[in-house]
Specification:
It is built from 21 helices and seven strands. The protein has helices at residues 2-34, 43-56, 70-85, 91-104, 109-118, 127-143, 147-163, 170-184, 187-203, 207-223, 227-242, 257-270, 279-296, 299-315, 319-336, 342-355, 359-495, 498-523, 532-547, 567-587, 632-643, and strands at 529-531, 553-560, 564-566, 594-603, 609-615, 647-653, 656-662.
């Protein structure tokens, strides 16, 4: 009795749901009929269209929940045409609905043309709908084996996610990109993405997934003939499988799947170069793979294992075993209608018959196999042709649209160009008038300014001439005053004791050196720079006249480059020159009747100058340390060297003494 009640209740619920379903379809039909004459002249028409579409379909999937009539497609196209001119904010959404309807009806031309525009980053379609279009386009391209386009779409989707600052599922993208590159035959790039996925799973200790992608890496090496590398990754994949306690997603992976997957990887590894391996070893590998595939009901792997076993038996001359395996394979392929495997089964039958010496039967099987292969290839070619035609039409429409846009833009540019030319002509005339007035105004201003500048130049020249005369007069008077002081010191020296006399004579020479500089300044046109060559000659002549003795024949050889020195350098340098040459003249030749002094000033390549004073006299006292000397002369030399940023040094031995100042 309770069971009967339950059955009755179930029937009543089903009938009520059926009644509700019929009411729902009636409601949708009434909405559709109400929209037939809609002209989309205001926003309420578009809101009603969107409401109807939301009822008709689920936007998160590409499956209609109500039959789609041609009336609805016509209304969408009418809404699109109106939105292009009057309601541009609704255009992207209407195009999205058109894309979905044509996609559902397998009309490829419209999905390509609409979809590619809608998924662009600059498109105003919302983010979620763009993702739906991406998934649909990727599915279409995958179904036609257009892996390059799949790769491009995956990368575009990745950029879209980053642009909208959404959390990017890198792992999913890497998986899809790896598979696409593998299908394309670009095994190196596929391997790179498989490794990225595998490393992520290894870090998470997700060993089943890690083994899956290490197996994929091994397959890329195997396809490229790199056996050692392939073997390494297959072994690592097996090690990861052995760490798995239970296969994830147990709600649809049957028990024993771990053993199956392990046998699959072992087969991938050991069947490389199987012809050179022991018969029983390879047979066990193949039988284990087939047995575990049968247990977990992996029918594609069963077919692959049976084909490999049949080829294996034929290679070793086990024709009866091969024929039994082909018959089992034929039964499985027929049961599950694996259309792409029929040709392979017939070819295996032909090989078995050929091995039995039944050439005529073998030829018949080969003919049937070729016929099926040709049919499949023709169908594939037809599908590719349809796909290519759809792409061509899409591209053609895009080009026509671009041409129309260019024509419209050209017309706009032509109109704007004419308007711009007219405005430009008016502006040019106004500018010419303004420029003429400005030229006249500036001509008068320039003429007046030139007159004022000429008068100022004349006054400046007169002022400069006056200042030059004043500077010459100042230098002349300074020189005269120094000579007066020098004369006073000379007279005082004549009356002073010998010790004081020598000090006064040295001071007199120093004053004479400075006086020579001022003499050079007022005799020269330039008041800041002095030719040190001419100054050195005067200094040498002065030092000789003061220090020359009748019982000595001392010559001074001067080799001075023609160098212009600033007054701030020439003054201290002349004092250094005077001190070094005077002291050498006085002290280097004691007890001798003749000697030679060489002075030189040279300019180096590094921009520095070198003053040297050398003699062939008796040399310095070995016990004398000039650097520690506190005499006024040495203090002056070192202080003045520092003043001109120079460095003072010396070398001395009997018969040769050399002083250097580098500045």
């Amino acid at each position: 009795m309770p069971k009967a009640l339950l059955s009755l209740a179930g029937i009543l619920i089903f009938c009520s749901q059926l009644a509700v379903g019929r009411d729902y379809f009636k409601y949708v039909d009434s909405l559709e009929m109400a929209m037939v004459d809609t002209n989309f002249n205001d926003t309420s028409d578009y809101h009603r269209l969107f409401q109807f579409h939301d009822i008709l379909t689920r936007e998160d999937i590409m499956v209609p929940i109500h039959p789609i009539s041609q009336h609805y497609v016509v209304q969408l196209e009418k809404a699109r045409d109106k939105a292009e001119t009057d309601f541009p904010t609704y255009l992207s959404r209407v195009n999205f609905y058109l894309f979905r309807i044509h996609y559902l009806n397998s009309i490829l031309e419209t999905p390509f043309s609409l979809g590619k525009d809608l998924v662009k980053i600059e498109s105003d379609l919302d983010f979620e709908r763009k993702l739906i279009i991406f998934e649909a386009l990727i599915e279409v391209y995958k179904s036609y084996g257009r892996n390059q386009e799949v790769i491009a779409l995956l990368k575009s989707r990745h950029r879209l996610l980053k642009y909208h600052e959404k959390q990017v599922d890198y792992l999913s993208d890497y998986m899809d990109l790896g598979n696409a590159y593998y299908s394309e035959g670009n095994y190196e790039l596929a391997r790179d993405y498989y490794k990225k996925v595998a490393r992520n799973y290894i870090d998470k200790e997700a060993w089943y997934h890690a083994s899956t992608y290490y197996n994929n890496v091994g397959l890329t090496f195997r396809e490229m003939g790199q056996v050692d590398s392939a073997t390494y990754y297959f072994q690592q994949a097996i090690e990861f499988v052995d760490r798995v306690d239970s296969i994830p997603f147990g709600h649809y992976k049957p028990e024993g799947y771990k053993t199956y997957f392990r046998n699959l990887i072992l087969a991938n590894m050991h069947l490389m170069g199987w012809q050179e391996k022991p018969y029983s070893f390879v047979l066990n590998i193949l039988e284990d793979e087939l047995a575990s595939a049968i247990y977990v009901k992996e029918y594609n792997i069963q077919v692959s294992s049976m084909r490999k076993l049949a080829d294996f038996y034929l290679y070793h001359g086990k024709v009866d075993n091969a024929l039994i395996m082909v018959q089992s394979l034929d039964s499985l392929v027929g049961k599950w209608d694996f259309k792409d495997q029929h040709a392979a089964v017939l070819e295996l039958y032909g090989k078995c018959k050929l091995a039995q010496g039944k050439t005529a039967e073998a030829y018949g099987y080969f003919q049937k196999s070729n016929h099926i292969s040709d049919s499949l290839n023709r169908e594939k070619g037809r599908q590719q042709l349809i796909f290519a035609a759809a792409e061509f039409q899409t591209q053609k429409k895009e080009e026509e649209l671009q041409i129309q846009k260019l024509q419209v833009n050209n017309l706009d540019l032509q109109v704007k160009s004419d308007q711009t030319r007219q405005r430009l002509l008016i502006v040019i005339v106004c500018l010419l008038v303004a420029v003429s007035l400005l030229i006249l105004f500036f001509f008068r201003k320039v003429k007046t300014a030139n007159k004022i500048i000429a008068e100022q130049n004349e006054r400046t020249k007169a002022d400069l001439k006056t200042k030059e005369l004043l500077l010459k007069e100042v230098n002349h008077r300074v020189k005269n005053n120094l000579q007066v002081v020098s004369g006073l010191l000379q007279k005082q020296a004549g009356l002073a004791p010998d010790k004081v006399k020598s000090y006064l004579e040295v001071s007199q020479q120093r004053l004479e050196s400075i006086a020579l500089i001022h003499k050079s300044l007022y005799e020269n046109e330039e008041f800041q720079y002095i030719s040190f060559q001419r100054l050195a000659v005067e200094l040498v002549r002065q030092i000789e006249s003061v220090n020359q003795r009748p019982d000595q024949n001392i010559s001074i050889n001067a080799d001075i480059d023609d160098i212009e020195l600033h007054i701030d350098v020439a003054t201290p340098l002349s004092l250094i020159f005077n001190e070094l040459v005077s002291n050498t003249y006085k002290h280097a030749f004691k007890g001798r009747t003749e000697g030679e002094i060489s002075v030189a000033l040279k300019k180096g390549k590094d921009g520095k100058h070198l003053l040297t004073v050398e003699d062939n006299g008796i040399g310095l006292d070995p016990n004398l340390d000039i650097n520690q000397s506190k005499s006024l002369g040495m203090t002056l030399i070192k202080g003045l060297s520092w003043q001109i940023h120079g460095q003072f040094s010396y070398q001395s031995k009997p018969g040769e003494t050399r002083f250097e100042v580098t500045f």
